[in-house]
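User: Hi! I'm working on a homework problem where we have to compare a predicted structure to a textbook description. Could you give me the structure for the chain below?
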Amino acid sequence: MGTDTAARQEGQDTGLKAGISRQRAYITFGVVSLALIMSQINSTIVTVGLPTITENLQTSLAYAGWVITGYQFSYCITMPIIGKLSDEVGRKRLFLAAVIVFTLSSIACGFAPNIYWMIAFRILQGVGGGAFMPSATGIVSDIFIKRRATALGLFTSVFSIGGVIGPNIGGILIDRFSWRWIFFVNVPIGIVLILGVILILPKVESAIVRSRQRVDILGVGFFSAAILATTYSMTDWATHPGRFDITTGVLFAAGAILLVLFVRHEDKTEQPLLELTLLRKRPFLAANVYNFIYGSAILGFYSFIPYYAEVAYKMTATESGLLLTPRSVAIIITSILTSLFISRLRYRLPMILGVVIIAASLILISRGYRDVNILGLEFHNLVLLTLIVLLTGLGAGIANPAANNAMIDMVPEKAAAIAGMRGMFRMMGGVIATPAIVLVLSYFQDQGVGFQNISFFFAILLLLLIPVVFLVPEMTRAKR
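Assistant: Happy to help. Predicted structure tokens:
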């Protein structure tokens, strides 16, 4: 009894949930962070392995791109569902299920006999990966009550640790062993996580408790079918560039119709997949426009950086993985600093500064510089491209904590649901951008040149976000 009272008192003194000691809170943060690290290792490893997977599974870039798109697709659909269920059903149970699904599907990906099975297993893996962020956000939000903004802001640096580990391990495994090991590497981490969740994670409850839970199955169906039809229409078009046939046209039209049906259904249902009443509010709409375009650049365009390095600069998998490391380190450092000073910086300044720096990096990529000599100092291709990509890390590290907290700050009692919505829009940007990039590249004989043109387009798109940021409210007066 005395121990419970002491833990409750310590929680109140440190701004933690009552009954949670400081030590257990920090260990819990470490466990959920490990899941995010595993998810990011998986994402960055696959981008390094894309050229090798394309060659070894004897497929085209249009279909190999679905190794990325399929994962992002199911990740995108899963996030708002888990965000809703996490707020209503229970964080720990859903988080454990996500770890199990992710680990088993990683094993299946490693044994995939062809591109079709690979895509199927990657879609399943995305279900597990998509459940991590809303569940983790809900768990941390419930425990770190008064330090929520800082704790959630640190998730950005946590993701970036996976960004350091993933491409480097991936490059070594691909060059020395086999691309299949880039999936098997998730297994030992998954086993540690399963034990950690069972033994360490406290049973935390959301502030919102409802007696009956219901997932909007019809809404999920409409939305999934709309995105699937739209993205696959671009893949179909990319397989025969220059010829927009009836199949492509029908798929595009079906995607548009299904999206309209989804919006109409969401307005009528009692428990919608997406709370359109929130999206119709200008601050939420602005924040999600930002998330969508930001996601299309960071999760779509930058997924192809290792591919670009290998195609345009003839780098090995190890070298293409190495060039991503300084970017991830920059994200870790700048996101920690931004998170610590976010109460002073507030939201708009970091969001604007971040996209401007990322746009500058994209413009430099679009120039296609090679072996540059500046004032007698030689910058060979690997170093040059690494420094350019490093700028992206600085921008993302500055922008992410503010963008992550801006929406949650509006409705903190729905933290997991809001995180799911935010993540869905960000990931949906990547889902749409990935096949779109492959489609554009199919029109270029020299894919390096095509990639540079796409880079410039994304730079302009990001700069157009600056006026949108001014519609996002600053931090609440009480928090300032």
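For your comparison, note the following. The two ends are 38 Å apart (CA to CA). Residues 216-272 form one domain. Good luck with the assignment!
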